[in-house]
Request: fold
Amino acid sequence: MSEPAETTTAADTPRFRYTAALAGDIERRWQDFWETEGTFDAPNPVGELADASHPRAGAPKLHVQDMFPYPSGSGLHVGHPLGYIGTDSYTRYKRMTGFNVLHPMGFDAFGLPAEQYAVQTGTHPRVTTEANVERYRAQLRRLGLAYDNRRTFSTTDEDYYRWTQWIFLQVFNSWYDPEQRKARPIDELISAFESGARVNPAWATATPVEKRKIIDDHRLAYVSEAPVNWCPGLGTVLANEEVTPDGRSERGNYPVFKRSLKQWMMRITAYGDRLIEDLDALDWPEPVKLMQRNWIGRSQGAHVDFATETGGGTITVFTTRPDTLFGATYMVLAPEHELVATLTAPTWPSGTKDSWTGGHATPAEAVADYRAKAAAKTDEERQADAKEKTGVFTGAFAVNPVNGVRVPVFIADYVLAGYGTGAIMAVPAQDTRDWEFAEAFDLEIIRTVQPTDGWDGGAFTGDGPAINSARTDGDLDLNGLGVADAKARMISWLEARGHGTGATTYRLRDWLFSRQRYWGEPFPIVYDETGLPVPLPDSMLPVALPEVADFAPRTFDPDDADSEPETPLSRAKEWVEVELDLGDGPKRYTRETNTMPQWAGSCWYELRYLDPKNDKVLVDAANEAYWMGPQRPGDTGGVDLYVGGVEHAVLHLLYARFWHKVLFDLGHVSSVEPFRKLFNQGYIQAYAFRDARGIAVPAEEVVERDGAWYHDGEKVTREYGKMGKSLKNVVTPDEMCETYGADTFRVYEMAMGPLDVSRPWDTRAVVGSQRFLQRAWRLVVDEETGAVRISDDAADEKTRRLLHKVIDGVRGDMEELRFNTAIAKLIELTNGLTGLAEPPREAVEPLILMMAPFAPHLAEELWSKLGHTGTLTYADFPVADPALLVADTVTYPIQINGKVRGKIEVPADADEPTVRAAALSEIADHLAGREPRKVIVVKGRMVSVVL
RNA sequence: GCCCGGGUGGUGGAAUGGCAUACACGGCCGCCUUAAAAGCGGCUGCCGAAAGGCAUGCGGGUUCGACCCCCGCCCCGGGCACCA
Reply:
């Protein structure tokens, strides 16, 4: 390396001080070096990226990945790279401990903002997106992040989305076999129907088109006419996961309506059980696992059939508490339930209470009125009204199958059409909602579980012995059984008598997979004259996005629920209408004009990093097995460490797991899960300031005086939140690199707290990290002359002990991602060395190696100044000498009744009686002749005396 | 309402049963400087002149000893919310 260019600084700043300018010079040089040398290229076992001569070829592997960013137009602020710097520090450390490290970075570049910008300005989304990606690359490069640059891509690259489309075809060409609990090729289902191995009564007589429909209904990707979330304001439909609990779009906050529309779906529900069960094997934060469990919402219980008296058919309910069936005193259907019309009685039966009729003369009127009111309510209003139970009696009665008792049937909006069967048996004694309804409508309450002593009334949902739960004929008696046993007994009775079956239901719905947008992956699907979908062969991939004049989907008045989606691609007429030869000669086809949701590209990118140049397969089996395969029996495989924000807990992470499992079932990957270990980093937030009018003022211009804040002499108020343009509190990594240098910025971000904790940004405090690096620099370089001032003499005993204590501590911290405490220890070591006239090489070299993960440019520079050639990337991380970790003397604090009253220093190997005697003599004054009641000596720790 | 996570100096944080407040910021004092900045050194939990006392959200408990374990409560952040 060449000597640094002379830095221009104030006249009296020492010429060789580690200033921002010098740091910038060092950083640029090393970034160029790393890039030219391909320093961070990780060798694959096979293929184009294999390299048997690499220092880590064949070494134990480590695959660490960040959730890749969407490259937004405003670039990075200091909060964005927190996780990237964390994984970079960790992987640089692991490289030095012998691992072959894969740490790639890419860009999730399809998505709404580029499209909306395109709509406003007419700029093609590809142009905007590529410019943003270049800006991100430059910003990340400047931070010295050690990526394997051969493995980077954007999801918008044709080479990439070609494989996204290929995976879609895999999903489309599969069905889920519940017996084998896995996806299988659709051809196997067709063969099974043909041979009769699987019985489908309609198959034998079906026409070819009908057979296609039957098959299409089994595919894992399918078109369905079903209620979906239609968002007129965005002009597109949305997945359930993209709709907020108050019924609005997560992006844009527009109203969302339930509309029945023909859309692509993915059968993620088939994987509900496996998605829940396999969570147990993952090393993920518990809250994220819990959110996924809740979202999937598996509940186990039974379907129970209730006969109806009026000939309206059988009402099937789902219940998690079949044990309480003797306490079912009424039933409720969702207002939209299909049996409501046929059930509703012509007149009010005798015994109808006034409160049940809603003031109407006939059940039909009451039902019609209630249904109209319920339909008019938005989800939001429905929730707001949730406290008060409403409903009306249908005039119909059903028969409780367990004891033959007649129970009235109501409709009420507290029962949801979309969950279970849309109908419930109501057991007020054991269900809070049913209790509230029963009180409001004066219905009977029969306890079937004995509440605990002192229960003050209300529904009892806990465990207890069953009561009032026996048939008079002795055929069934649950009394005395606990809830679990009673459930099991009841289910077997229902099954034996044909009244019901054990059952499991899910809250999870199938994944709505099509969007009415331009900037997304086109579907590799065309439609023939039957209107049924036809998959394109692999040879026709990629299906490239066509050029269009107008990128916008048709949007509507956000409240216009009856509007119809219209896709941008449908306007590219010459693209949509196409002649193809799909095996039976050239024919006219119509292309699918929806595009895939933004999640598609991020559903599998962890796999493409493994083998990004491969144009034969998605990922070579040997490369996949090496980087992501299971490491031992029972292991799920997957990325060894995946770092990102908790906001993707159910969206991205659920979809990616689903796709990965399909690919596993079809034999394309050996790992069962995409991400073995997940880590949620915290957020860096910032203070923002507003003046008296409530307008945000530039945060950097605000000064603090006596606990108040002022801007231009005017008092302003402070708030805490995200960094953003509108709050005028954005701080960028570029500014930090300019003012302090990238290494200082990196050290500061890692030192300011644990990686998983959110915290406020404080530019003023960055100088502390710069001072640390300056002190370390000064250990090696004379600031005035630039000469290396290291001594080759042995370190003194004290220095040596400090060094090895720090090595030991830093290794432990690095393994556990405790970067803040690792840096604190490095600062202690540095401070311990700065006092020495000539710092010993023996201690300085390990210090530099240990600093390398956090301040890689500085470390490389000092390493070469100490006479080493090339990079330290693959140098060995220091190892502590165990002999130097045990002290030869130990200081024991002495407590009297829990308060420290003295200290003694004794040889480390002193036995207990010696320590005890020394301690008692030390505190003789405090004892004043009294005999201690008890003396506890904790070896190596302390002495506790009780008076 | 239910389920998670958290509450430690002026600030970010350290300590997972054994000397509470490591490390850093800020503040104060000093060195250097014509001066300022930068840099370097010292002090800095609170009360108190000191001796000493008091401090890890609040109240109890277990223990020789509790920020740490247990019980009850308060506050902050997040998730879910009529899911039968």
The first strand of chain A starts at residue 61 and ends at 66. Residues 166-270+510-599 of chain A form one domain. DSSP finds 28 helices and 31 strands in chain A.
